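user: can you give me the structure for this one chain? tokens are fine.
assistant: on it. calling the predictor now.
[tool input]
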Amino acid sequence: MREWAFVALGSNLGAREEHLAFAREQLALLPDTEVVAASNVEETAPLGPVSQGPYLNQMVLVRTALSPRDLLSACLAVERARGRTRGERWGPRTLDLDLVRYGDAIVTEADLVVPHPELGRRPFWQRELRELMPHARD
């Protein structure tokens, strides 16, 4: 069975638009996964205490048979393939992929929480979700 999932993309280092395009392409190549729609790209100020440049953000809607855990693992692999190294929390990054929602699932694990716990504090995610919701139909 396939489920709707919303994946947030962000980048504030290097060729930001190319990083987002790479993420969209890689998500489309995942097994049993289709990228259904992508929100507009918007530039936002960084969050958190670390001084850094602005982000480009976008959200994609996928229809997938991957579990939330497998989808998260695939997202982390896409980040690594684009040179993401995990260092300072809230620090700059070439590419960041976050699993924001996975159908109506509620997941609470040490390294995976769905819906994403920052959803209520990120107005750009909320705008992007509203933009994509009409595409999430059975």
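assistant: here you go. Residues 68-81 form the longest helix (14 residues). The domain at 3-135 is CATH 3.30.70.560 (Alpha-Beta Plaits).
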